[in-house]
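Try it yourself: sequence plus zinc ion, in.
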Amino acid sequence: MSKSTDRYSGPAASTYSYMNEFIVHCPKCDAMATVSTNQSFDTSNDKLTCTNCHFVEMRDELIRYNAEILRNCDNCGKQINITIPDNKQETTELQLPCPHCHIIRIYKPKNSKYFVGYKSIGICDPVFNLPLWLQADVKGETLWAYNFSHLREIRNYVSAKLRERQTSAFTTMVEKLPNFIKIGKNRVAVLKVIDKLLLK
Ligand SMILES: [Zn+2]
Ligand SMILES: [Zn+2]
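Structure, out:
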C-alpha cells in the first residue's frame, strides 16, 4: 500500500489561480521583485515592487499615446500626416505648421494608446514583461513558476508517485505541466532544480 505522502492531493487549481503574483528580476537592480495584479481589465492597481532597491512602478505608468493628425490643410489642400509619439498623456491640441505651405494651425489629434512593457527575453511575467525569477534549466528544457506557491505546488505534484484526476470541470495547473516535468525518469533532476529554486 502506498503511503499517503506518495499521493498527490493538491488543490484542483487552474494555472490562472496562480497568476495574481509574479516573482521577477527587478529592472533596476536585478534582485527579486514582485509584480502584483488583480487580474482584471482594470490594470490601475497592477504594481511592481522591489524590496532590495525600493523601486516601485505602477503598470499604467507604462502607457503611452501617439498623437496623430491626418487631414488636408485648409490653406493649400495638401495632406498633413503627422504623428507625435510616446506621450505620457493624451494630447488635446497641437499647434503645427503645415509641412507644405507652413501655415500654422491648431489641430485636435487622435490619441492612440499603447503599452510599453520591458524588452526582456526568456520567460516573462504577463504584466510588465520582466524575466521570471523562478526559472531554471532541466535537461535543456526550462522549468519555471510564477511565484513560490506555484513552484511548491509543482513540487508536490512531481514528488507524488500517485497522481489522480483532480476534477473533471477544467484542466488543472498540474495537469497542464509539460511532459519533461511529469515523466518519472526526470523526477530526481526536476526535484533537485525545484529545491534549488526554492532557496533562491
Ligand atoms: Zn530593485
Ligand atoms: Zn498647407
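One thing you can check immediately is this: The pocket of zinc ion (ligand 1) is lined by residues 26, 28-29, 31, 33, 50, 52-53, 55 (CB under 6 Å).
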